Amino acid sequence: MAKVLLIAEHDGQHLNVSTARAAACAATLGETHVAVFGADVDAVSRAAATLDGVTRVISIERAENATPLAAVLAPQIAALASDYDVLLAPSSTFGRDVLPRAAALLGVPQVSDIMEVVDGRTFKRPAYAGNVIETVRVPEGIKVVGTVRLASFKAAGNGGSATVEAGSVDVALPSHTRWQELAASGGDRPDLQSAPRVVSGGRALGSKEAFDIVYSLADKLGAAVGASRAAVDAGYVPNDMQVGQTGKIIAPDLYIAAGISGAIQHVTGIKDAGTIVAINKDAEAPIFELADLGLVGDLFEILPALEKALEG
Fold first, then answer.
1. How do residues 230-243 score in pLDDT, each as one tens digit?
2. What's CA 106's distance to the chain center, in Å?
């Protein structure tokens, strides 16, 4: 049985759901160990130990790991991965940042966006905005390194009872990179990439101020807020809210698209959502071909009506 090392994503206090989704993929490949890097991550390590399929959690605590700097984490990950057959990380902003560096240090190629495991060395991944599914095989004798497409796997359950142990990695860390800051524009709203409910707005909103109508409905639903590329390019919202091929690939239980036409770039980011609700005054908008429920009308009338219904 292959030995799998999964790199945990967390904020220092809470384990990100991306780790649970990646753990579901890892469990199909072999015995799964989770590595938690941080400065004080006891709570995170304990949470990782409860994931189904995880048999061991390695907690690597040192001051330099207090912030998720890829330049600092990658050498440690590469060193720790030397005893494993497979190295995985979530295909989130964190995983896409750190794993390519680790793969380069290991001298092996990376399989990005694993959406299906065929066997221990064969995987399926999307290409061309999801219009083509590639089958990729990693040659024998080469360590398997890959990021897990979060929208393709359901989160592992919390019935596990893995052991947690302290670990250490004796490697020289670079000093050419330093942490500046972490700024989030979403306030107290759920994280866009892992939220079970998302409300997104498009260019039809018309202005940054008009986007408040989307925020208001999202707050009533306890949802995260996203946007189409057109809305981001128009300056209505920051680019970290962009959903789509060049933004975030998400798979919420509920996705509400308000004033979004349904360009292929956007559809790529939401096609794995549980229920898609489209709101657009153009009855011929492509988004309706994908939507489970469609409302044809003015979003400035429909969104307040939905919000009022929720209050009732």
1. 999 999 999 999 99
2. 24
